[in-house]
Write a structure and sequence with these properties.
Layout lengths: L1 E4 L2 E4 L7 H7 L7 E5 L2 E3 L14 E6 L5
Parallel strand pairs: 1-5
Antiparallel strand pairs: 1-2, 3-4, 3-5
Length: 67
């Protein structure tokens, strides 16, 4: 399945069916994230119930500390 993440086309395995699984696949589950799915910002508690499909567009922003 092909989706767009942060402007880049990404091919993901068919068994990845929701935002939570995608975040885990991208190794971002331990980061503070904001996820926009097809122009809708999702609260973290909606990641598991939000399905992803061919052609979806996502923006994933995570915070980086430093000084």
């Amino acid at each position: 399945m092909e989706i767009t993440v942060n402007g880049d086309v990404l091919t993901v395995k068919e068994d990845i069916t929701n935002i939570e699984e995608l975040v885990q696949e991208l190794h971002l589950e331990k980061k503070s994230l904001i996820v926009e799915h097809n122009q809708t910002i999702l609260k973290k508690d909606k990641h598991k119930e939000t399905a992803i499909s061919e052609g979806d567009k996502l923006e994933i922003v995570h915070f980086v500390g430093g000084g």
